[in-house]
Amino acid sequence: MKEINKLSGIATPLDRVNLDTDQIIPKQFLKRIERTGFGNYLFYGWRFREDGTPNPSFILNNPQYEGSEILVASHNFGCGSSREHAPWALLDYGFKVIIAPSFADIFYNNCVKNGILPIRLNEASVRQLIKESTEHQKEVFINLEEQFIQYDTEEKITFDIDPYWKEMLLNGWDEIALTYQFEEQIAAYEKKHA
Amino acid sequence: MPKTIIEKVWNDHIVYEEKGKPDLLYIDLHLLHEVTSPQAFEGLRLNKRKVRRPDLSFATMDHNVPTKNRSNITDPVSRKQISTLAQNCKEFGVPLAHMDHPDQGIVHVIGPDLGLTQPGKTIVCGDSHTSTHGAFGALAFGIGTSEVEHVLSTQTLWQSKPKTMEIKVIGELGFGVTAKDVILAIISKFGVDVGTGHIVEYTGDAIRKFSMEERMTICNMSIEAGARAGLISPDEKTVEYLKGRAHVPDGGAFDALKNNWLSYATDEGASYDQTLEIHSNEIEPFVTWGTNPSMGSGISSAIPYASDYAEKSDREELKQALTYMDLKEGTPLSSIEIQHVFIGSCTNSRISDLREAAEVVKGKTVHPNVTALVVPGSFKVKLQAEKEGLHKIFEQAGFQWRESGCSMCLAMNDDIVPPGERCASTSNRNFEGRQGAGARTHLVSPVMAAAAAIKGHFVDVRNMLSVHA
């Protein structure tokens, strides 16, 4: 996966609580056996009308947010299915950072394994960022190394992240290759439990 | 110090631990299916990696398989996904129950049925409903495809230890109230994210009295409460269920295994990070009316009003849900008419579910406005049901009797609810578009689904059941 550290750009607000992975990528697109090409189907049911034309009232079809790499969402983002097609679709579309008050566990894991930075911020900061991003297209600056986001003022809004996942994201490491370094321990465990 | 089953299973599987890092956990059983595995096998191929323990892996085809005209998959993309799994299993030596194999079925139905699922095991699958296996006292959870690849190549996973939560179901359930109603009531009461970052153990009198099938229904929907996993301490019922299963040893080896299994049960006096309680007498047959599994109520009640909610975000969520569902605040649940009934899915497609639904249906006729479908959870369940004549009861009433698979739970195959139509479904998710674009899903128990099929609208099934002494 690709490493991620600093990034700046406008944030796309998507103000729906408990946004599930069935909405992020509907099941009819899960039949493909590739990891790529899911971006066209991201939020398909909301992004397109029944005849397949773009739904102008959906935020991703607003030209002001074109090219945005940051998504700001509400609590329990990514709940439901374990489909990794959800982060694949987000990444393929161009989102590299997702900011929300909380994420569903499996979705959170799936993001970090694909080089997407999921940022948990307190509810008030997220509400404020959604408001600001809806009213004006704010330039948001993100720094993973120093764990803060910043927009408008000098004020830095800090966030927490597990140091292990932070290291993985900063370096874009292949987790399986890392785990191979524990071959001795794995073999010992297997021997003991055989 | 007394320990919970969660701590016992976790600690027993730590391969490596270091401060500031997640634990490296050993995985005892890896279940696979066609939808979330192709990219993982492809990753192995690209990096010239092998499957470390094919003997601890087991694959089947369930999500995408047709439930009629089994051999004829018309969609070329679906067909390719199915054949890809067969090729991958062959290439990497992973055992596979192909869609025509007698062991085939929904992955969470066949694991327990074959005795692959056992107390004290760590079990993963690229499917969020892996929590089902927790019914046996296994630590079972869903993973993404990157993690599937990681388990295939290392038989381990890096996992941060979740917090522990007890959900206690106090008292005895009333007549006609099922395990499905209990889990829907739990999610409705505590919310779809109450379990985030936690592993839940279900305890209490009602849980102890449940059969293994009922326990599976409860644990299955742990993910709908946001939990990483959900489980139940093993007891004699667990042992009895597993005895004689294909992958369970017999004789003296069984006795030793049995004692080991039972030793995983939570110790008297063990404590949890959090305990939640629900009283059985609060629970009646449930119907969801919204677009997430917490949006449901007892059959005797009505859809809430926005003004019932204090939080603005809750009021907005209600309005969005009711717009999608084309329902109005204050509508009595029993007045909602349905056009489809689906009895199936990893939540409710086991033989006991079909027996209970057949009991309601027997001698009656499906309402003329309703298309009703029974999809057994596995080949074996289907055969057993046919042996008992259940298929005749369903077919004579006007139900369609299908081959096993995930089917209309997620509508990846041809079993789709048309736009704007309403389905009483025994599955686990009522998200927008889940059963088809624009389709409206109401989650219920098998007996409630059966009753709705007959009446054409939701009814209190307790009025249709005869009381057995």
Automatic annotation (TrEMBL), chain A:
It is an enzyme of class 4 (lyase). CDD domains: IPMI_Swivel. Residues 1-123 form the Aconitase A/isopropylmalate dehydratase small subunit swivel domain. Pathway: Amino-acid biosynthesis; L-leucine biosynthesis; L-leucine from 3-methyl-2-oxobutanoate: step 2/4. The keyword Isomerase applies. InterPro entries: 3-IsopropMal_deHydase_ssu, Aconitase/3IPM_dehydase_swvl, AconitaseA/IPMdHydase_ssu_swvl, IPMI_Swivel, LeuD. Pfam families: Aconitase_C. Keywords: Amino-acid biosynthesis, Branched-chain amino acid biosynthesis, Isomerase, Leucine biosynthesis, Lyase. One of its GO terms (cellular component) is 3-isopropylmalate dehydratase complex. GO terms for molecular function: 3-isopropylmalate dehydratase activity; isomerase activity. It catalyses: (2R,3S)-3-isopropylmalate = (2S)-2-isopropylmalate. The keyword Signal does not apply. Its EC number is 4.2.1.33. Gene3D superfamilies: Aconitase, domain 4. It comes from the Bacteria. One of its GO terms (biological process) is L-leucine biosynthetic process. NCBIfam families: leuD, PRK01641.1. Heterodimer of LeuC and LeuD. Catalyzes the isomerization between 2-isopropylmalate and 3-isopropylmalate, via the formation of 2-isopropylmaleate. Belongs to the LeuD family. LeuD type 1 subfamily. This is 3-isopropylmalate dehydratase small subunit. The lineage of its organism: Bacteria, Bacillati, Bacillota, Bacilli, Bacillales. The gene is leuD.
From TrEMBL, chain B:
Binds 1 [4Fe-4S] cluster per subunit. Catalyzes the isomerization between 2-isopropylmalate and 3-isopropylmalate, via the formation of 2-isopropylmaleate. Heterodimer of LeuC and LeuD. Pathway: Amino-acid biosynthesis; L-leucine biosynthesis; L-leucine from 3-methyl-2-oxobutanoate: step 2/4. This is 3-isopropylmalate dehydratase large subunit. It comes from the Bacteria. CDD domains: IPMI. Residues 7-456 form the Aconitase/3-isopropylmalate dehydratase large subunit alpha/beta/alpha domain. It catalyses: (2R,3S)-3-isopropylmalate = (2S)-2-isopropylmalate; citrate = D-threo-isocitrate. The keyword Protease does not apply. Belongs to the aconitase/IPM isomerase family. LeuC type 1 subfamily. Its EC number is 4.2.1.33. [4Fe-4S] cluster binds at residues 346, 406, 409. Keywords: 4Fe-4S, Amino-acid biosynthesis, Branched-chain amino acid biosynthesis, Iron, Iron-sulfur, Isomerase, Leucine biosynthesis, Lyase, Metal-binding. It comes from Jeotgalibacillus campisalis. Its cofactor is [4Fe-4S] cluster. The lineage of its organism: Bacteria, Bacillati, Bacillota, Bacilli, Bacillales.
